Amino acid sequence: MSAIQTGRRFLVTGGAGFIGSHLCETLLALGGHVTVVDDLSTGRRSNLDAAQLNWGGKIDLIESTVSAALPSFTARRFDAVYHLAAAVGVRLVVEDPARAAETNIFETAAILSFASRTRTPILFASSSEVYGKGVRAPFKEDDDLVFGAPTVSRWSYGLSKAIDEQLALAHAQRDGLPVVIARFFNTVGPRQRGRYGMVLPRFVAAALAGAPIQVHGSGRQVRCFCDVRDVAAALPKLLDQSECHGRVFNVGGDRPVTVEDLAALVVRVTGSASIIEHVPYSEVFGNAFEDLAIRVPDIARIRAAIGFDAHIPLERTIADLITEHARAPEAAA
Ligand SMILES: NC(=O)c1ccc[n+]([C@@H]2O[C@H](COP(=O)([O-])OP(=O)(O)OC[C@H]3O[C@@H](n4cnc5c(N)ncnc54)[C@H](O)[C@@H]3O)[C@@H](O)[C@H]2O)c1
Questions:
Q1: 16 lines ligand 1 (CB under 6 A)
Q2: Alpha-helical segments (H) within the chain
Q3: Does ligand 1 lie within 6 Å of residue 165's CB atom?
């Protein structure tokens, strides 16, 4: 525990969600006081209960959208803000692209104004989706962002995150806002839910039920998965270093794996007899869906800045998901 951090006050938007609740644990472990604003649209109180249980601290939950909660905060009430609230998940975005774009743009605009006004350092949770359909591998932070046609609803998420990034950097330039942009790649681990299209909890649940594991598309898509505990540990380190302010960082694993191989690994670690079944994207998301063949990060920048490494191997993450599933089968649904 760092003595410098003890007693600091943190605001985490989207803190009852998957990554947010792990970040709350990290901040509690640093001795901080944590306030969460979350409308519980995809997050859960039980995630915060688990975070508190592990560290014994207290998290104040304000059940609200971000923009509705902000007027109740007095000036400079927090020492740092972590903005993770967003409409997340391919399924959610494809089903309601308007909601995804509105949530991700308007709520972020509101919190950035708040942070600028109160001169509070802020970390913004962006996404590898901002690279769109860029073909370069691995993706570097200064690469061009290449999106598909706006008629293809999946791009609304990446586009909205890209607008957020521009807005955050504009506040940094105009107002001197200390802001860090963290572009998360595929993040996995306990408390992630399968119902919004997240691949690993879906695979683990199917394997444990002995049901077919459904791989969307060819299965030859290449991704890098990073355990959420590695991601959460990195975020305060980024925001606490003034050299990181005004910069963008990829946050992800460095072990590329095809989705088909991921399914095979889940079968092996669970000891399941499940078969692997391929399902065309058109059957899952409709005809206007495009996916990326390769999405892997270049993590040289975050390595150089904070010594980041993805320590937790995928096998251990899967083993932890199996344990979580045995304890509460409904948790990963
Ligand atoms: N999980 C990943 O692999 C991944 C990858 C890239 C980026 N991200 C980003 O990381 C952040 C966290 O994602 P996650 O995977 O934990 O998803 P999540 O759905 O578990 O977390 C998002 C949280 O935000 C809350 N929320 C949504 N709209 C809100 C609003 N208007 N006001 C207040 N709260 C609201 C939800 O209830 C939820 O708790 C998001 O910004 C997401 O875009 C995640």
A1: yes
A2: 18-29, 45-55, 66-69, 90-95, 97-102, 108-118, 155-175, 199-209, 228-240, 259-270, 281-285, 300-306, 314-327
A3: no
